[in-house]
Every structure is written in C-alpha cells, then in structure tokens.
Amino acid sequence: MAEGTLGPVSLSVFGAALKVAAKELLESFRDRQTLLYTFVLPVCMYPALFWVMVQGVLVVQGQKNARDVTVGIVAEDSTFEEARLALGTEDDEEPSGGAVATVRLTPEPAADEAERQAQMQAQMQAQMQALLEQGGDDAPDAIVVLPGAVAGTEVARVYFDSTNSRSEIARERALVSLASWADDLRTKAADERGIDPEALDPIVVRSNSVAEKKDEGALLLSLMLPMLLVIMSVLGAFFPAVDLTAGEKERGTAETTMLLPVPRTAVHLGKILAVSTSAMIATALNLLALGLSAGHLLDQLSGASGGSMVVQLPVGALMSVLPLAVLFAFFVSAMLTGVASLAASFKEGQALLGPVQMVFILPAMAATLPGLTLNTTTAWIPVVNVALAFRAMLVGDVQALPLAICALALFGAALLAIWFSIRLRSNEQVALAGETLSLGKLFSLLAPSKS
Amino acid sequence: MTESTNPGHGAAIFADGLKKTFRDPQRGVVEAVRGVDLDCQPGEIYGLLGPNGAGKTTTLRMLSTILAPTSGRAVIDGIDVAKDPLEVRRRIGFLSGSTGLYPRLTGRETLRYFGKLHGLEGDALEASIQRAIEDFDLSKFADGRCETLSTGQKQRVSIARAVVHDPPVLILDEPTTGLDIMASSDMIKFIESRREAGRCVLFSTHILSEAERLCDRIGVVYSGRMLAHGTLDELRADTGKEWLEDVFLALVQRADAEAVVTAAGASASSGESDA
Predict the structure, then answer these.
(1) Which of B112, B110, B136 is nearest to B122 (CA)?
(2) Contact, A345 vs A246, CB < 8 A?
(3) B66 vs A contacts (CB less than 8 Å)
(4) In a domain, A274, yes or no
(5) From A263, which residue of chain B is nearest by alpha-carbon distance?
(6) Are B98 and A259 in contact (CB < 8 Å)?
(7) Does a structural domain hold residue A181?
(8) Which domain holds residue A118?
(9) Which of B22, B117, B170 to mutate to test the interface with A (most CBs of A within 10 A)?
(10) Which pairing describes strands B92-95 and B71-76: parallel, antiparallel, or unpaired?
(11) CA A344 centroid distance within chain
(12) How does pLDDT run along chain A (451 residues), one tens digit per residue?
C-alpha cells in the first residue's frame, strides 16, 4: 500500500496536516494557559491596562493644559504690544487651560559691532539662560525673541529649558501662538499687496534649549532609569518566585517544607526574603552592567542623533533610591510569590505571572511621561509612586512630603502584599494543590471563613 | 507547649474521631477521613492497611500537621496537633512519597538544614549528621547533590533527614512503594530498628506481607473509616480468616454490606416521611 493511502479514503499530506492541526488546536484550547493568553489577555486585560494608561496620559495632559506659564518677550517697542496680545491669555479666555502671562524683557544692548555679531549666538544663549533661571514669580518659563529685537536676529526664537516641564509647556504654547500670529501677519501683508499669501516667505520660528548637555543627559536617564529599575526588580523576582513555590510543588518538596519544625509564617517570610534578595541582586547587577556599558552607548546614540548630551550614571542619586528600591523589591516579591503559589508547576507559574508582571511594568511607564511628577496625589498610587520618586531623586527635585507619602504607601503596600502572600500560602489547598487554582478559587480561599 | 493531661493513656500517637473534609470544585464536599480512632504506643509498630483512596495518607498528613483536621482530636507524644502543631513537628519524623529531597542541596546540607531547624547546633549538630551518615551508610554520596542520587540513595538520605533529630515518633506513608528489593529490605530493617530503640512507628501500606511481618497491631482503613484494629490474631478471630488478605477482604465486604443496609434504611425512612 502506498504511503498516504492507508484506508479506503486517501488522505493528502495537507489534509492529514489539517486533521492533526484541528486535534492540536482542540487540545490547545482546552489548556487553561493557552485560553488565558489567546483569548482572555487580548480581549480583556491588555485593553484594560492600555485604557488605564490612556487615562493616565489624559490626566497628565489635563494637568499640563491647566498649568499657568509665563512667556518673556524680547521685542521692539513697535511690535511688543501686538506680540503680547498674540502670546498672552487671561484666565477667563482659557477656561479649560492654564493662562499664559507675558513679561517684557530687555537684554543688555551690545556695545559695538563685533559684540553685536557675537550676541547672535553664545551671548544670547547665555543671557536667555540667565533670564530663565532667575527665579521669582515673574520669571519667564520661556522667552520669545522676535526678529530685529536684538542685533542680528533674523528669525523668531523661543528659548526654553528642555529639562524643565513648565518651560516645555511654555515653549509649546508660544510656538502655537507664534505660528498663528505669523499666519495672520503673512495674510495681512499679502492683502496689503494684493497677492497670494503663499507667495510670501513664511516667518521662521526656531526653538533653542538653554539646558546644559549634562542636564539633558540627566533628564534622559531620569525618564529611563525609573522604568528600568522597576522592570529589573520585577524580572529579578520573577523566576525565584516561581521556582520557590510552583517549582517546589513540581519537584515534590512542598510537603518536605511543610514539615520544617518552624512556624509556617517563618517559612513563607523566608521565601519572600529570598525572592526579594534575588530581585535586589538582579537590580544591582543590571545597574552595574548598565553603568559600564550603556553610558557610552547613550553618548554614541545622542551623538548620532545630532545631539551631544552627556550621559553619566548618577551614582549618588542611585544610592539615595536604595531604601525605596528595597521596599519595592519586597512589595513585588511578595506579590509574585503569592500569585505563583497558586500554580502547580513551573510552567503554569510562569504563565500566571506573565500578566502580573505587566501590572507592575505598565504603570512604571508613567515615569516616562514628562508632565507627571511626584506629588501628594501620585505618591499614593502603587508602582507609579515609586517610579516618580525614583525620577525625582535622579534629577534632584525631591519634595519631602510627597516622598514621605510615597515611602509610607510603599511600606503599606509591601506589608499588604506580604500578608496576602502568607495568607494564601498558609492555605493547605494552595500549599499542596496538585493543579493550578483558578481566580474564583483564589477569591474563595481569601474570603473570610463563615465558620 | 500544650501538654495534654491524659492523651490516650501515654500513647505516642492517639487519634479520636479524626475527620477531614475537602471542598472540591468538581466533586463538592469530599469526606476523605470520616472518623478515625487509633493509638500507638512507644516501642510499637502500627500498620495502617487499606486500598488506594481509603484515607491513609490524609490521616497520616493530619497526624504530621501537614493538614489540619476538620474535627476530632489527635495527640502526638502528648501534644495536641491542633493546638501546637509546631511542637508536634519537632517530635516526629515523617516520610512519604511526596516528601522529596531538595534536589540542589547535597545530602549533608539537607541533614544540616533540618538539624539546625530542629535546634541542633555546633558539635551536637555535627555529631548528629555524622551519626546519620554512618547509620544509613551515606558517606559515599553525602556530598553529592540529591538530584544526582539513585532512588535507593535518595531513600536513605530521606530516612536520615527524617530521623536526624532522633524523634520519638516516626510516621511513614507507604515507605517501600517504588523501591527495589534491596531498598525495601533496608527500609524494613530501619523500621524494626526504630522499634528496638523504643520508638513508635506508624506506617501505612497496602502490601500485606509487610504488615504481617512488621506490625504489632494493624488498623484497616476503608472509605475514610477505621473498620477494625488490633493484633493480627485479634483480627483473625474477628473475621474467622487465617491469611491477612482474607481478613482484609472480609472486613471490606462486611463494611460494604453494612453500607448497603444503611443506605436502604435511609431510603425507606425517607419514603415513609414523603408519604
């Protein structure tokens, strides 16, 4: 009998493959993990997480919109009033957003022609930086220098500090207002001459950041490092949490551990401590490796992209992050250890912790939102608070009260997670379960007993 | 420590109406053990005999504090398992098919870990480890990771782990299951040696020859209940059978018949009340 004609009905290779595939799919879709990853996560969890992120972005955007900023204007007498009207707003004009106040600035005049030429570049930059950093209620967040206001200025320039979120907001609003004003001026000029506005050269507006290169590097690190610290901590805790719980069941040593002549709480705490230690070691080693290799890489990248920012790992700031990092490691480790305890095997433990780690990592991305800062509200939100606190510490912009709230909230979260983990693991059905427990079962285990 | 005033008249192991129910998502409430009574004296070997699923393992897990009894009372060496499970764990050595060795530790590290947690330290700890290594002939592989050991070697390390603190009570769940002839023989010798040392040994098995050879008394467990217990001669007298296999089958058939009568009675009284 020829191959492929085993019975009365001949099966082609493709037909046989389809039948095999159908059986494999049937088996796969009867597997809880496959169902979770194929249907539940795409349909429910990730949209929910991204919805939360979008809401977060909207909140941040709302906060940005609501901020009042001050724009300094450097202009000739003839254009100042018009510029003030174009750039400035009053509170009642912008009910949904923050107001833009304007202040007139007068740079020191250049003494001679040589100095006037120099003023175009370095001196102007330095003078604007000094004005932006002067502090006080009337201090500008960004400065608009109009053409002709200073010797040699042919284009409109917006000076701002790229490492300062208020200055960024002021720059964005100034650019929008300048674009609109420039269009009006162009249309008006074209009307006066009776020509098409497109025939006139557009008014050029440029942005200049007065931030020093090392501050820009610090900003970049402050955006990246908090998220990396959180991810490193979570990944560092991931495998030990599975190994010491579900892995122990798989290896047949869970019952051996239950026989240890010490209180069960001590056993559970010991496991959480071991997972936390792994998380901290992994975080420290990752940071070390990052310090040795990534600083140079980021220098190269910033150079390749046209910038020349200076990127250095802030060792001192990282040391100050340590106490919060330790608390966070306990929080993460206790949560992951508790959840992994529900699994009966290493593979199932990995599957269970996959979505859980996203619950930690996605909120940590909040630290990359430039407008979101650690304040007395955000300091209460788990994970978001620690990421923002890390960022505040890395840029040296720490306020005592939000930081204290963050530490308190993190301490509370860590205690709660440890309680959750111990309570879960103390349940003999969780400790000895031969199969992974469902969420429904988890809730019934955690619910207060009626008896 | 919770000392009982009269726990089973000096029994090393005493259980009275021990019950265990589980809530299973598929099967609902499962009564794994429905009221087991037993007592085991120091220097005695007591065998729990029963088929798979009879409730032997659950009973032993309750006695060793791995599971908490749903109701009833169990006392080990004078300590109530529900009131002071930690002290009970200090006084027992427990061994079963599911008390595996930590694969990444060596045999010596395993003994040191358990010894330390049992409160041994310094010279006393080292002496206990050395004694266990000599008693169970572990010297050739005591420093190899447990994951690299053969089944027989693992079994010997497991026994040493269970008795490194020289407990007065030893609880063994089907200790010879899965072992080859040599390892089984070693295990039987070990159980006999514990009796000679005046220790109490409670073990479960479904291997009748083992029970006949080793046990001073035998308890027959079936469907979560203790059907009968006593010496082999007492069980023979009770059933009128000579061989333990026949004794066991007679007890099981008697229990099944009683269950049918009870069910019929319950059905009849239910019918009367409906009418």
Answers:
(1) B112
(2) yes
(3) 255, 258-259, 428, 432
(4) yes
(5) B86
(6) no
(7) yes
(8) 67-211
(9) B117
(10) unpaired
(11) 34
(12) 444 444 455 677 777 777 777 777 777 677 666 676 667 766 776 677 667 767 776 776 677 677 788 888 887 777 777 877 777 765 545 545 667 777 766 666 656 656 655 555 566 666 667 766 666 666 788 888 887 666 566 678 888 887 777 788 888 888 888 888 888 888 888 888 888 877 777 778 888 887 776 677 677 777 778 888 888 899 889 989 999 899 889 989 999 999 999 888 888 888 999 999 988 888 888 777 776 666 666 666 555 555 555 556 666 777 778 888 899 999 999 999 999 988 888 888 888 888 888 888 888 887 777 677 888 988 998 899 998 888 888 777 788 899 999 999 999 999 999 998 888 888 877 777 666 666 666 666 555 544 3
Residue A336 to residue A242: CA distance in whole angstroms:
8
Domain boundary among the residues A152, A183, A211 is at A211
User: Which of B66, B89, B90 shows the shortest C-beta gap to A255?
Assistant: B66
Do residue A255 and residue B96 have CB atoms under 8 angstroms apart? yes
Q: Which amino acid is at A129?
A: Q
Q: Which chain B residue shows the shortest CA-CA distance from A244?
A: B102
Residues in B closer than 8 angstroms to A261, CB to CB, are: 86, 89-90, 117-119, 165
**Are A273 and A407 found together in one domain?**
yes
Q: Which token pair is A160? A: 């701002």
- In this structure, the answer to whether residues A159 and A81 fall within a common structural domain is yes
Beta carbons of A260 and B101 less than 8 Å apart: no
Gap from A337 CA to chain B (nearest CA, Å): 19
Domain membership of residue A46 (yes or no) is no
Q: Give domain B13-226's CATH superfamily.
A: P-loop containing nucleotide triphosphate hydrolases (3.40.50.300)
Residues of A in contact with B117 (CB under 8 A): 260-262
Interchain CB distance below 8 Å, A438 and B25: yes
Spatial separation of the C-alpha atoms in residues A11 and A5, rounded to whole Å: 6
Chain B CB contacts of A256 under 8 Å are: 99-102, 161
Q: How many interface pairs between A and B have CB atoms less than 8 angstroms apart?
A: 52
Cβ contact (<8 Å) for A260 and B117? yes
Contact B34, B189 (CB under 8 A): no
- Please count the structural domains in chain A: 2
Distance between CA atoms of residues B149 and A169, nearest Å:
67
Does residue A42 sit within a domain?
no
Show which of A211, A230, A257 is a domain's final residue: A211
A254: which chain B residues are within 8 Å (Cβ-Cβ)?
98
- Torsion angle (degrees, nearest 10) of CA A82, A87, A93, A94: 170
| Gap between the Cα atoms of B52 and A42, Å rounded | 43
How far is C-alpha A379 from the geometric centre of its chain's CA atoms? 15
